[in-house]
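USER: If only I could read backbone structure tokens as easily as an amino acid sequence. It would mean a lot if you studied the pair and described how this chain folds. Here is the record:
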Amino acid sequence: MLHTPRTLAPLLLVAALLAPSVASAQGSARAYLERRHDEVNRILRQDAETDAARERRSQRLTRLLNQLLDYEGLSEASLGDHWDAHSEEERARFVALLRQLVERNYEANLERILEYEVSYEDERSRGDRTLVTTSAVSRRSRSSTRCARSAATGGSSTSPPTA
């Protein structure tokens, strides 16, 4: 199956969005993303021949994903001006649904991650944000996509990918 840059964008979302306070505590955003990407690849290369092994692998990747993504920040950014118009209960439901959607998409695309060579090209500060530019090239078709991710270094906001 041919994977286009458009199908890679959700994978890069997982690989590149991060919890900013964690990244700033562990060095540059670029280095943090590279370490997390290496960790994802190590987990994916582990034997997962049985259902139990696949479940353990999935749980480890889900934990890692949950450390990388600020679901509440993504939810608030998704709803924009409409965020404040909703009750706490509605917001919590929205955040939970977004988490489920991301996790399902991630699990459906796990094996594809290894089909791409990801490079972290640039890191630039923009006020209280750090922009990390990444690119991914399919090892099969050599098609590529380029994405820029930004994360606030002092707060908890992240920006969605651009593909």
User: Anything to note?
Assistant: The chain has a mean pLDDT of 75. The chain has one domain: 5-152.
